[in-house]
Give the backbone structure.
Amino acid sequence: MDLQTEDLPDGIKLVVLSGRMDIAGTQQIDLRFTALTATSKALVAVDLAAVPFLASIGIRTLVSSARALANRGGHMALVNPQPLVGQTLIAAGIDSIIPIYPNIEEAGRGLLAAAATG
Amino acid sequence: MESPASLLLSNDLDDLACVERWVKDWARQHGVAQRTAEYVDLCAAETVTNIMTHGFGESQQGRIELRLARTERSVVLEIEDDGVEFDPTRCEEPAEPATLATTRIGGWGIRIVRSFTEQVSYRRNAGCNCLTLVFRQPPRDAP
């Protein structure tokens, strides 16, 4: 797997993941992904458009990091998952605890709104 | 049902890498819809990961065999292992996550497998776990 980051306007960090998020893939990005949650009050949009497969080990990384972010006053949003990945997130119930948006613009608005309400 | 194709794995997590290619090659050869193949790949990965992680002692050599077959309307994946007895069909459905702060970390594999399959059944046979997952072909939308 690969992980790229980009700083967007309004202080939002975009994390672009690519590759199969199975055990091997998740191990490749887990440390760097987790490190992104170490910033206080960070707003993180995770672009999943280039992730064709998400196993529960990958869900663990997403949820653990989202929780760590929330504990530091930050927020995470998931963006544009492929159909199978979107179905996997819904099957696991993740859509009820981490918001999923169809594009980065809507994710940005959602993150800013979440930050505004604390 | 036709004769099943099979894949033999050890309980080494590195062996998981074989599963995706095996499922996709088999699906292509048998005219299985791509979406069904993706569901099979995902559920095989979840189940085999769980067996490799929890089914054997630390230095125990394990055997995991996957068998795939198709009928006119379904794809059948059988997963047999000689690890500790475990019937996932008797596990309670993990609760729907309520909040990020309170959600239990883990337990998603069972939810995923139940969502992407038509039927899950288990039997204990000659000291082995044998799990059968049935996928509709062509697939319905899941979950």
